[in-house]
Amino acid sequence: MSVSGQQLVITANSDTTGNAHEELEVEQTGEDLTIAFNARYLVEILSHVDAPQIVVEFLGPLSPAAIRPSDEAEGVHQMYVLMPLRQ
What we know:
- The protein is mainly β.
- 11% of the residues lie in helices and 38% in strands.
- It has one helix at 39-48, and strands at 2-4, 7-14, 18-25, 33-34, 54-57, 65-69, 80-82.
- The strands form two sheets. A four-stranded antiparallel beta sheet has the order 3-2-1-4, with no helix packed on it. A three-stranded antiparallel beta sheet has the order 5-6-7, with helices on one face.
- The longest helix has 10 residues, at 39-48.
């Protein structure tokens, strides 16, 4: 994942299943960042978040990311922590 300006670029590479590239418009605060995650873990987290938008908070490329729904329903609080891969 690479965040720059107001754009998030997600790329995935696999010798067996092929490559993927997606660009999304995001609301960013803070510095630009490039970080790598295990795609299976990220997809698993996103499959459990029942919200139209999420918040992903980063401290740096080697620190865990916090992932949560942008609108939490009353009484429902979700937060997932995802460890990055070393590049």
